[in-house]
Structure formats: C-alpha cells, structure tokens
Amino acid sequence: MFFEPMNFINNLHYLIKGEIGLFVALGIISLSIIILNKLSER
Amino acid sequence: MEFLYENLLLITWQQIIMWGIGGVLIYLAIAKEMEPSLLLPIGFGAILVNMPFSGAVDQIINGVLQEGALSTLYQAGIVNELFPLLLFIGIGAMCDFGPLLSNPILMMFGAAAQFGIFLTLCVGSMFFPINDAAAIATIGTADGPTAIVVAQTLNSQYLSAIMVAAYSYMALVPIIQPPVIKLLTSKEERKIRMDYEPKEVSKTTRILFPIIITIVAGIIAPASVALVGFLMFGNLLRECGVLNSLSDTAQGPLANIITIFLGIAVASQMQAEQFLQVQTLMILALGLFAFVFDTAGGVLFAKFLNLFLKKKINPMIGAAGISAFPMSGRIIHKMGLEEDNQNFLLMHSMGVNVSGQIASVIAGGLIMSLFM
Predict the structure, then answer these.
(1) Å from A38 to nearest chain B CA?
(2) Most buried residue, A1, B170, B225, B361, by most Cβ within 10 Å?
(3) Residue among B358, B235, B98 at smallest CA distance from A22
C-alpha cells in the first residue's frame, strides 16, 4: 500500500470512460426495448 | 500425551482473531439474518482454515504438499470463475424484468447509480496498484459474483477481503442507504408521488430482452459477455415458457449448491496471514465509500432529471439503481411510505433495482475491458 494523491487525477479518465460506456450501453438497450414494445403493440 | 497439546501451542493470536471474525460472520448470518446463505459458510470456513496445519487447505508438511479440500474447491470453481458464473444462471432465472420492460427509461438510473464504483476506482488508486483498485471498486457493484469475477480476472491478491466486504455491505444496505438519501433529499422531494400505469409486456419482448442485452453488452464490453450472458441465459430459461423445470432447477437447487461451494471455497483465502492486514481495513473503508457514492449518484441523477421534467420523479428511486436486488427496491418503497402512507413507490423502485442488476454486471465488464 502507498499514498499517491496524483493517481486520483491521473485515473479520473476511467470514471468518465466507465460512466459514458454504461450510459451508452444502457441507452441502446432502453431504445431497443422501446422499439420492441412499440412493434409488439401493433 | 504430548500430541494432545502440541497443536495447542501452535495456535497464533492472529488465528484466534480470525476465529472471532468467523464467529461474528456466523452471528450476523443467524441472529441478524444478513446474507446468511453466504456469511455462514464464509464464517465457518474462516474458522476451518485457521487451525494449525488445517487439513482443509493445502499444507506443505516435511516438504510434501498435502492437498486440502477447500483449496481444491477454490482451484476448481473460483480461479476459473466457474462458480460465480453458474450462480448467475440462478440469479437470472430469479429476476423478473417486467417492471423495467414496461418502463425502459428506468434503465438510466442503473447507469447513474454505478458512479460510486468508478469514483472508488480513482480514490483506491491513491493507495493500491490500479488492478487492485479496480477490483476493490467492484464492491460497489453490490453484486458478489461480479466482484469475484472481476477480482479474479484482474489477478487481485485481495479477493477474500473484497468478497467479505461485498456481501457484508449488501446485507447492510438498509443501514447504509437511508441516511445518504435523507441527506441529499428534502422532505418534500421524498413525498413526491409517482403514478404507476402498468403496461402489458409481450412475451416476444420478454424473450428478446436477454438476447439483446447479451449482444449489446458483448459488443460494448466484450469482457462482460460471460457475466451478462450467464445472467441472461438464466432469464431466458425463465421467460421462454417451455423450460420451467430447468428454470426451477436454476433458481433452486443449482443456486443453492453453488452458493454453498462458493462461500466455503472463498473462505479458503481467509487464512490469518493473508487476511489480517492494514489493507483489509482499507478495502472495507473503500467498499463503504463505493456504496455511499453509488446511492448518491442515483439520487442526484433523479434530482438532475427533475430540473427538466414536468412530472417530477421521486429522487429516492434513483438510489435503488445500486443493484442489491430486491433489498434496495424495498427500502425505497418503505421510506416513501414513512413520509406519506399513500405513496407507493414499489413498482418504480423495483424497476430501477433490476436495472441496477444489469448495470452492475455491465460495469464489472467495462472495468475488465479497461484493465485487461
């Protein structure tokens, strides 16, 4: 174990990449379900 | 008669502490009913492996390796990630995604409530190498099997501490979440009522849903495809309507058998010399941090949406995106009733809660993709 405060800043891009990845993945899934629901209503 | 007491003299104070920890886990499992199916095997296993020259784990005696059953089980089911993945078939078969399918927008709360995972990754990297920090951050998935798979894949040396933290905090969700939610919301916000207009979800949608999720997750985060795929395979067994006996087996006997093996096999890594380290305390603190900021992420996302919505959302439901299914969903419902006894949030909070289940698995896969 060590203490390197700068690592927090250096690794912040993982937070951004991770959250963007999640929103994109779940956004695509949500859209797919909305389309599926619309199609099955017909 | 010497053989009767010579082992007594070999007991170390560290092993006695581990017996205490094992005892506490057993107490929490039985007396407090906190995740008993896992905390009890882990607690008992912690005692089992902390005997001098315990025959339950591998020992080198006189230069000869004597294999222990728990070490063999660990190699057979944890090192290759088989047990957590098989458990996911059972979890998938147990999940009813109906509330989410009738309101798919709820899925976004699942994404927001994984914020604590990635923030913990950054904070943890100040103290641990990045692969260990990433593995520790997955405690925030509130999903034991995901945490195990990620820790194992990233070759983290802290698997046992991560698993104990993940399951303990999952059981502590009713204690962790309410104060964070109350801190971030006003009484008026907690009283917001949400109409529930159930929509019929077709069988086709229910069947295609697990397949779509597997394909999307597999393309965006290929490392997550085993995790997501096993979860969704279990769900497909449930929803297809022609494999009810397999679905029942996955939900019952399969999940139970794997849970027994998983808990006791992980305990093989709870030997005093590995577990009693300052790092373990740090991991427990980071795990709590992840849970707190997951909850905050979900609540703040709902409050952010309310800035633009005419029909306001009760921000408490965002907190259910933490996964920890179904406990978190029920807590939000209960908190809603405490503020207004006619405020029924259950269907919304459960929809968000199952979205958290999916989001946490994809988050685990994203972490693996980022660091493999």
Answers:
(1) 10
(2) B361
(3) B358
| Contact: A33, B209; criterion CB under 8 Å | yes
Q: Is A37 on the interface with B (CB under 8 A)?
A: yes
> Tell me: the pLDDT tens digits for B19-77?
999 999 899 889 988 778 888 998 999 999 999 888 888 888 888 888 889 999 988 98
* CB-CB neighbors (< 8 A) of A40 in chain B: 202, 204-205
Tell whether A34 lies on the interface with B, counting CB pairs under 8 A.
yes
> Which pTM was predicted?
0.85
Which tens digit of pLDDT belongs to each residue from B243-299?
A: 999 999 999 999 999 999 988 888 888 888 888 889 998 999 999 999 999 999 999
Structure tokens at B74: 């660990």
Residue B197 has pLDDT above 80, yes or no: no
Structural tokens at position B31: 């007396």
Counting one residue from chain A and one from chain B, the pairs whose CB atoms sit within 8 A come to: 121
* Residue B238 tokens, joined: 């449930």
Q: Say which amino acid occupies A23.
A: F
Strands (E), chain B: 59-61, 64-66
Kindly tell me the burial class for residue A27, based on how many C-beta atoms sit within 10 Å of its own C-beta (0-12, 13-18, 19 or more): middle
Picking from A14, A34, A41 by the largest number of B CB atoms within 10 A of its own CB, the best residue to mutate is A14
ipTM: 0.94
For B176-185, write each residue's pLDDT tens digit.
Answer: 999 999 999 9
CA distances from residue B226 to B145, B217, B218, B230, B367 in whole angstroms, order as listed: 12, 10, 9, 6, 14
Contact residues on chain A for B282, CB-CB shorter than 8 A: 1
